[in-house]
Design a protein that fits this description.
Elements lengths: L2 H8 L1 H8 L5 H8 L7 E5 L5 H8 L3 E6 L2 H11 L4 E2 L11 E6 L11 H10 L1 E12 L4 E4 L2 E4 L3 H8 L5 E10 L8 E9 L7 E2 L7 H10 L3 E6 L4 H16 L12 E7 L7 H12 L3 E5 L9 E8 L5 E8 L5 H6 L4 E6 L4 H13 L4 E3 L2 H10 L22 H9 L7
Parallel strand pairs: 1-2, 1-4, 2-3, 4-5, 11-12, 12-13
Antiparallel strand pairs: 5-9, 6-7, 8-9, 10-16, 11-14, 13-17, 14-15, 15-16
Helix pairs in contact: 8-9, 9-10, 10-13
Protein name: HKD family nuclease
Organism: Azotobacter beijerinckii
């Protein structure tokens, strides 16, 4: 047992009494200003549990730990919830906490261990999260009243923080000791982690619609596989020009053989797919695409997956997949807030798994080749749901507007056309 650990075990009640009532409101405010309401906080080295209790009172979820069993027991009683006994070296969480509070606790970590300790805490912080720490202002290491201390100033703490990645912002300030009999100065650090990059998440809406991503992927692929629960004419009309273009493209020398392979798998799930959309898919099929309908027979078919494959300059497989929430409808492709996550290969073997599952579904006996006879039978029995079951599921193509010549012809007809 180290001298510092022995100190807290033997002096736990005195330390608790001296620190539990200190006013920390200003420090709490600075920290919590950057934390979402109800966020999950880690009080790392919580001591008396004073700060954790204040966070709980404001509606935050709090996990707390301390290396001293005696202090952890007192803090548990104070908080009304369990405080774990563990050390910084035992922090193994990843991207779990919205905020990490290490108030006057890291100052017992030797400088040689500080980078690894900070890395563990930083790894436990969510992207966009905030980390607070404090040290007694100074330089070097020292022993005081049976405890080991590592002091820090702005330059020293900055050097430690340089070992962390994805640091978005660092703010330091100095403050006086909250205990009235103490004249020491403290260095406070508030460090924000960068938010997660959104390059792989297509979030939809006006700012990031799905359609442009699909069109780029279509033109960059040699093999295109689409699996969606339903297809609406409003959405298919947006994709048809690009799909037809890659079905008809030729090589640089004008020779055939460079056309893309296009496969579409949709379903009769809830009778949402438009018969008119299926007839448009027949036009695509006549140009060389393969289209199949998965007959649900009362079951579910809820896929939304878009897979694109090709080869790099060395002839190696490259691929991209979008898997998420968008069916083929105008709203899902252009206007709706739909999340579709992009997978790139090489890099993510999930692309290979998705491709393999598509092959299995496309070969299933319930996946029938699309035909005019199937569409006729479907149209005769179709009973679409009275309410929308997904964004765009009740979209209809607008009625065609007559041309000026057609309007004049309608006016001249001797029959009453419209009631």
């Amino acid at each position: 047992m180290s001298d510092t650990h022995r100190y807290y075990e033997t002096q736990a009640r005195q330390f608790f009494a001296e620190t539990v009532g200190l006013e920390m409101g200003e420090l709490h405010r600075r920290f919590l200003d950057a934390i979402p309401a109800g966020g999950h906080l880690l009080d790392a080295g919580c001591g008396s549990g004073r700060d954790a209790k204040a966070f709980l009172a404001r509606g935050y979820r709090v996990t707390a730990f301390d290396a001293s069993p005696a202090l952890a027991g007192l803090a548990s009683e104070h908080l009304g919830q369990s405080v774990a006994v563990r050390r910084f070296a035992e922090v193994e969480e990843t991207a779990l906490y919205d905020g990490i509070w290490a108030c006057a606790s890291l100052l017992h970590v030797p400088p040689a261990e500080m980078p690894e300790t900070l890395a563990r805490l930083w790894r436990a912080l969510k992207p966009g999260g905030v980390f607070y720490c404090s040290f007694k202002l100074g330089l070097g290491e020292r022993e005081q009243q049976g405890r080991y201390f590592t002091d820090a100033d702005e330059a020293r703490l900055s050097a430690w923080l340089e070992t962390l990645d994805e640091v978005a912002d660092v703010h330091f300030w100095r403050s006086a000791d909250r205990r009235p009999e103490r004249g020491e100065q403290w260095l406070n650090g508030l460090i924000r982690r960068a938010v997660a990059p959104v390059a792989r998440l297509v979030s939809g809406g006006e700012g990031n619609p799905f359609l442009p991503h699909l069109c780029r992927a279509i033109h960059g692929a040699d093999e295109i596989d689409l699996a969606v629960a339903f297809v609406k004419s409003t959405g298919l009309r947006l994709l048809l020009p690009d799909l037809l273009a890659v079905l008809e493209r030729a090589g640089e020398d004008g020779c055939p053989g460079s056309a893309a392979r296009v496969r579409v798998l949709t379903s009769d799930y809830l009778d949402v797919t438009d018969p008119d959309a299926l007839r448009r898919l027949m036009l695509l099929q006549e140009q060389g695409a393969q289209v199949r309908i998965f007959e649900c027979a009362g079951g579910s078919f809820h896929l939304k997956a878009y897979l694109f494959a090709g080869q790099d300059e060395q002839g190696r497989l490259r691929g991209q997949a979008f898997i998420g929430s968008s069916n083929i409808s105008r709203q899902a492709l252009l206007e709706g807030l739909e999340w579709n996550y992009r997978i790139d290969y090489p890099g993510d073997a999930g692309f290979l798994e998705a491709r393999s599952r598509f092959e299995e579904l496309f070969a299933q006996p319930r996946a029938l080749p699309l035909s005019h006879a199937w569409i006729d039978a479907y149209e005769a029995r179709r009973a679409p749901p009275p309410r929308a079951v997904a964004p765009g599921s009740q979209e209809l193509e607008p009625l065609p507007e007559p041309t000026a010549v057609q309007r004049e012809a309608l006016k001249a007809t001797p029959f009453k056309v419209f009631a």
